[in-house]
Amino acid sequence: MMKSSIDKKDSAAVLHHAGWDHLKPPKPDAAKFAVTGHESQVVTLQIGVGEACQGEAGTMMYLSPGMRQSVTYEGCCQRCCSGESCFVVNFTNSGSTGNHEFVALTPNFPTAKVVPVDLSSPDVGGKLVAQQGAYMASYGDVRVGISLDTNCMRCCCAGLGLVRQKLEGSGTVFLGGTGTIVQKVLADGETILVDTNCIMAFASTCKLDLKRAGGILGMVGGGEGIFNTTLTGPGLVVVQSMNETVFREALATQKIYRR
């Protein structure tokens, strides 16, 4: 009798052989944070005395008693152009108890997932390019800026637009994304083809380009539009099965149909 579904171990092997992997949590002995939940996820950070982390406005879920919350105004133009608020919320362990304190943050968008990326990883190299509004929180040295794609074809058709988000530093950044999220580390010269709506982030060492989605029939009736996006390594690539814009459009369509 045939199995009605693929065994979880076998499905993980298929994903591994394809070169993709689920986002990996930190090692337990070096854990600074924990991500919990399947949808509308929560990241809980352990903050030492005098340490701090940053978050997007509106992401705070709870703070332990020794945490102090403050708001700063920095990099307004670049942050706004990259899809963020010009305000940064800082969460600092005031040291009043002398113990580690905790802060829990959650993305502003419902059903969103928390995607941790270590910018100091050799697969990232200290610079990550992401879709607009992807940044949610960070700790350590993380700077939010912009990356401009001045190629007319790419900025119109590659899925990330003219102004992309650039995250630099040696700390850990938490991105907010929707759908199922997987990662792949591309070898030098390795190329993958990705739907234009599915790119979430990639190391700045990767090259982004376009490829025509087949012939005339493929472009008209294939469901992928005129172009797909290519990413060429080396470096980390993070993709999502459905981005926030597509999700909103799907909800709006359902609302219209119900009327």
Automatic annotation (TrEMBL):
Name this polypeptide is given: Uncharacterized protein
